[in-house]
Amino acid sequence: MKEKYVIIVAGGKGLRMGTEVPKQFLPLCGKPVLMHTINAFFRYDNRIKIILVLPEEQRDYWVKLCDEHDFKISHRIVSGGETRFHSVRNGLQLIQESAIVGIHDGVRPIVPVEVIARCFATAEQKGGAFPVVPVVDTLRKRTASGSVWVDRSEYCLVQTPQVFRSEIIQDAYRQEYSATFTDDVSVVEALGGFCVEAVEGDRSNIKITTPVDLKMAESIIK
Hints:
The protein is of the alpha/beta class. The chain contains 7 helices and 12 strands.
């Protein structure tokens, strides 16, 4: 069985939260958001190798938080880059063996273990996987004259972790950066010739970007 890694990318500045504290460090049920995120993957597999990508200027603050909360889950820290793409690339440089590699948003702290397991199992079998949930709201597309209805059944919402065999994701991240890279699946697909498998996600796997998201996460945990 191949080794498992997860690269947790946490580069937020908290602008939409309206706080000076980056959102990954905000308290959620008594401890920083990022600790919940790391713990989710530890619950999935306590042997998984965790790589945390942080902006250079936030590393000392994170170490201080770990001391204050007696946070002992083992992880390696690497400095982030100019964009998310460059941050993930920096994390991938620490992986020197054939493995199954997940990439996850640091501010998705309550990702269910079942979602993580589905993504890793499918990636090991088929090369790559990412979780999605169906769109439930009515969708309209903006046009020059207003907007038009679109069929929501043709769309889905994309989550993380996005998981790949290491040789696939490392090859993809050797490409030059493009503004069209919105997530790891788009980076892999840009190489051509490989279709990443969509698997069932979970609506509780929310991304915390606003104060409302933080309250929702607290409610789900409680």
